[in-house]
């Protein structure tokens, strides 16, 4: 969306803008409900035009470029905290939380809904479930080989040190994805809020079900009453 | 923990936290100036969080509380805890609380602070005084005689054996992922189950 | 021996003075806390908590130098990053009380 707006921005400032500004200034008294002279014409695409002022604050001109610059570095730093946990403070939990915080940052800059579309539910669920399965898998491989749960020295890792890289594996592909996935999931979940009758359980193919009608009305009630449940 | 981090940081040998002369300012009951000011900051923010009438103000002051706690953990040479406090409390908790507030209704208050419920305050003060009575038996902060540090079977054993057995330098991570790996697996499953529980409570089927 | 362990005045080392400076910054943070708690408007509180975060980054960096633990700078970096997140989150929340989130 922002790309299209930027394109019109370029062309408009090149061609239409001086005309619009003078026209606004001259016809300002005639048209009472027109914009004040310092505001651009509604469809000009300039920053102070109605089209862009009308869009919500998610398109902040300060936050968006800053986040564009900061987010890659912050994500890399989260990866560093995760991967370097064996030699410095940190680990999978902290690194996963920082990577989730980068997603929060992007969501605050570009709007939660568009971030939700960009980061599909599959990704969030795959991170959380895949992390849990990877952790359990790394723990269960030594059990299959006749050892104890998470007995790293039995891990079949060639050349490399199995103890060190087994622990790194637990931190990097186990804990960090679980934490990052669950925190992102909580973020999007809380941004959606409590499911009322037009969302959540009553939303899918189960809509035909008679019993769910009652459930939906119950949901509405409890949402009105506040967080009693 | 100190031992692990001095290994990682390449600084002096593993010594208890109290061995260095940390008292820059006049020492009052063996609390240095930085400790005293940080503790005062933490207590003040905690009280302000508890008494703030407006929920948004409480959330904001709670963010400030986590700033003080992270600095305090850092001073006590617990950088892993400080990092967790920074990542979770400042970043994630504040954002999640704000999102929750955005979905609830606002109640306007005239008063800035909660009024104090005297019986509850009396009960809490009584409990607090009782807990204070036990303070005399707790070893001083960073004391080399503290059982948690001088125990040759637990702390010293981990500090001595971590690198030999797990080949990583950070003792905290070694304890988490190797020595107590099964507990950590349980924690990870708890985090996962927390996400599922949030889905159930909010009556949703998908996260995003 | 590093610079931090060099004795300056009356047996106090550079590290001790760095800790004293950190204590001074913490006292300043307590002063800023007044604005965060009292602050008539939410914008005051947002600014106050942002200043507090920057202050904490400075305190953490000084602690890292005074304790001769360079890895502690990671915590300061995390705080600098998350303080920005906290600031934009709260400041966007104050507009229409989360209506534009």
Topology of this structure?
The complex is a heterotrimer of chains A (about 230), B (about 210) and C (about 100).
Chain A lengths: L1 H13 L2 H10 L23 H5 L8 H21 L8 H19 L1 H7 L2 H24 L17 H31 L18 H15 L4
Helix pairs in contact in A: 4-5, 5-6, 5-8, 7-8
Chain B lengths: L1 H8 L23 H19 L3 H21 L3 H24 L15 H16 L13 H4 L4 H12 L4 H9 L1 H21 L7
Helix pairs in contact in B: 2-3, 3-4, 7-8, 8-9
Chain C lengths: L6 E3 L2 E2 H25 L3 H25 L6 H21 L8
Antiparallel strand pairs in C: 1-2
Helix pairs in contact in C: 1-2, 2-3
Structural description of this entry:
Chain C: It comes from Halorubrum saccharovorum. Chain C: It is a multi-pass membrane protein. The complex is a heterotrimer of chains A (229), B (208) and C (101). Chain A folds into two domains: 2-55, no CATH class; 63-192, no CATH class. Chain A is elongated. With 229 residues, chain A is mostly helical. Chain A has helices spanning 2-14, 17-26, 50-54, 63-83, 92-110, 112-118, 121-144, 162-192, 211-225. In chain B, 64% of the residues lie in helices and 0% in strands. Chain B has nine helices and no strands. By secondary structure, chain C is mainly alpha-helical. Chain C has one domain (3-95). Chain C has helices at residues 14-38, 42-66, 73-93; strands at residues 7-9, 12-13. In chain C, a hairpin with a 2-residue loop joins strand 1 (7-9) and strand 2. In chain C, helix 1 (14-38) runs antiparallel to helix 2 and helix 2 runs antiparallel to helix 3. Chains in contact: A-B, A-C, B-C. At the A-B interface, helix 5, helix 7 and helix 8 of A face helix 4, helix 8 and helix 9 of B.
